[in-house]
Design brief:
The protein has about 550 residues and is α+β, with helices and mostly antiparallel strands. Among the domains are: about 90-115 and about 310-350, OB fold (Dihydrolipoamide Acetyltransferase, E2P); about 120-305; about 445-530, conserved putative lor/sdh protein from methanococcus maripaludis s2 fold (Beta Barrel), CATH 2.40.420. Helices cover about 45% and strands about 30% of the residues. The chain has 7 helices and 24 strands. The protein has helices at about 15-45, 50-60, 120-210, 215-310, 320-325, 330, 500-510, and strands at about 1-5, 60, 65-80, 85, 95-100, 105, 110-115, 310, 315-320, 320, 340, 345-350, 355-365, 375-380, 385-395, 400, 405-415, 430-450, 455, 460-465, 470-480, 485-490, 495, 530. The strands form 5 sheets. A 6-stranded antiparallel barrel has the order 3-13-17-15-14-18. Strand 14 and strand 15 form a beta hairpin.
């Protein structure tokens, strides 16, 4: 399950068009009844009885010096300081098999909801078989890759040996065979030359002996034949040298060099072939490894999905169905056994009731007076005689409007921390009111705020002197919801009218609005009030008008 520790707007379900039209029709009828009743009540309030007007006109208040608290009054409701929204994390749609009753107090780890898991278990079995097959394929690919590595190493060593032998043959021919052959041919030429020289010398000696009849003619012819043979042998030896230099030696040199070049090329081909085969083998192995990883990941996700089918409490708290705190459409489709839920649908809100706070709405004109750490008294509507002392710990940064009924209203959410011991009897959504202490006004004259009449930018009070009401200009200071400080214009002990005469007369005639005085300088009705401006006195340095 996915848990969210931030306040969440719960998404409402859509309903049929026909049901929506009927609901809007009922709302319009209710609105008409409320407006009619309100208008009738206003008419009854706007026309008070003569006796009531007389009593109001005689009520006065004695100007008093003292101190009073600056308070911001705000209403709201109780909620848990820490709450967790639990959502369905099972993919697709699933069905609720079992759910704990709403309002149950649970501990961390307790089972809240069980969801249907038959399809997930079937998928886990199939995926387990796929994982086993993927592991076998990976093992086979590893063996093939090992064989390919061994073959590549053998082929490389054979190619390197062939190149080394070819180089040895080249070196052997260059340093051994070629010089040896050259020397042998040169020796043969030298030997043939000496033989020819010797045969010629013997022929000359034989010719001289033949002339002196020491040898026969046949012996002379034999010596001549020896010269011819020696000349032929010399020519043959010289021809052998020429053939070797022009044909045999280049041929043998090219052959041994070619063997070296071919062995080097074969070595390069072997290396490239090995790289290609090893790359293919490695790619195949990596593919099997990735396939196995994907299969294992799918199996783990399915097991995780299976674990999501058992929803457990992440913390201590009270079970509240998400449909209960959602819109009216969601309340019409509650969390029950057999209900189909989709992925990410909110199921349960689990507030920790051990630590409660008051969440109140403060008008935008007053929120500037608030700051964290200010003390507050919170009164629960269910227990009006038991106020709880708290402390402001959070002031909203974004204002909310009054909805379609009052779109111009702007209010900020203010959170008041309550003592942990107070949470034992508190429940979420209880209505409450708060009085936030923002400051204190010390040692000033003050009167009830309804005694002051404002005309334009000037403030007035009506001072009672005998049977007369004297309108007097005053300078006002700081105020709370019921008291206003008077910085100048009144003396301690004077009595001011609770309801100015002009308001009493206008209320009796059904005209005007309460709290509005007559035009500046005009005589007031009632007890023939007179206008008297008292001389101004310096206001205390620490009391400034706001």
């Amino acid at each position: 399950m996915r848990y969210s520790r931030k306040p969440t707007e719960f998404v409402t379900n859509t309903h049929a068009r026909r049901g929506g039209v009927m609901i809007w029709l009922v709302l319009l009828i209710i609105l008409a009844v409320v407006v009619g009743g309100g208008y009738a009540a206003y008419r009854s309030i706007a026309k008070p009885s003569t006796s009531a007007l007389t009593a109001q006109s005689l009520a006065t208040h004695r100007v008093t010096r003292g101190s009073f608290d600056m308070l911001v009054i705000a209403n709201g409701e109780i909620e848990a300081k820490n709450k967790v929204e639990i959502k369905n994390e099972v993919d697709g749609n699933t069905t609720i098999l079992d759910v704990v009753p709403e309002g149950t107090i649970v501990k961390k780890g307790d089972v809240l909801i069980r969801l249907a898991d038959d399809d997930i278990r079937d998928k886990i079995e199939n995926e387990t078989l796929s994982v086993e097959q993927a592991r076998a394929d990976k093992l086979a690919a590893e063996q093939d890759h090992a064989i390919q590595l061994n073959e590549a190493d053998s082929d490389l060593k054979a190619a390197e040996l062939k190149l080394e032998l070819a180089k040895l043959d080249l070196e052997k021919w260059t340093l051994g065979d070629d010089p040896k052959k050259t020397r042998e041919l040169n020796v043969a030429v030298q030997k043939a030359t000496r033989n020819l020289q010797r045969a010629k010398e013997e022929l000359e000696a034989s010719e001289q002996l033949y002339k002196e009849d020491f040898i026969s003619r046949s012996e002379l012819e034999d010596d001549r034949l020896d010269v011819i043979e020696a000349e032929s042998a010399l020519k043959t030896a010289m021809l052998d040298v020429e053939v070797y230099k022009k044909y045999t030696r280049p041929k043998e040199q090219k052959k041994v060099q070619s063997d070296v070049d071919e062995a080097a090329a074969a070595l390069d081909r072997t290396k490239r072939r090995n790289e290609s085969k090893l790359a293919q083998s490695q790619a195949k192995l990596q593919g099997k490894i990735r396939t196995l990883a994907i299969r294992e990941d799918r199996l783990e996700k399915l097991k995780e999905q299976l674990s999501f089918c058992v929803v457990k409490a992440p913390q201590n708290g009270m079970v509240i169905y998400a449909t209960t705190v959602g819109g009216w459409r969601r309340r019409n489709d509650p969390i029950v056994q057999g209900k189909s839920v989709r992925k990410n649908e909110s199921l349960i809100v689990l507030p920790d009731t051990s630590q409660m706070v008051a969440s109140v709405k403060v008008h935008e004109s007053l929120v500037g007076q608030l700051k964290a750490g200010q003390k507050a008294m919170v009164t629960i509507d269910a227990t009006p005689g038991q106020p709880i002392q708290g402390e402001v710990y959070e002031i909203g940064v974004m204002a909310t409007n009054g909805g379609w009924m009052n779109p111009d209203l702007r209010e900020y959410t203010v959170k008041i921390d309550l003592p942990p011991s107070s949470g034992e009897d508190l429940k979420p959504a209880m209505r409450c009111s708060s009085r936030i202490l923002t400051g204190r006004v010390e040692n000033v004259l003050f009167v009830p705020i309804q005694c002051v009449v404002t005309v334009g930018k000037q403030s007035y009070v009506y001072v009672r002197e005998g049977d007369k009401s004297i309108r007097r200009k005053v300078t006002t200071g700081r105020s709370n919801e019921s008291i206003v400080a008077i910085l100048d214009g009144l003396e301690e002990g004077e009595r001011v009218m609770m309801v100015p005469p002009a308001q009493v007369e206008q209320a009796g005639k059904g005209k005007g609005k309460p709290g509005e005085g007559a035009d500046d300088g005009a005589p007031e009705a009632g007890a023939k009030p007179q206008v008297a401006d008292k001389p101004k006195r310096e206001a205390p340095a620490n009391q400034q008008s706001e």
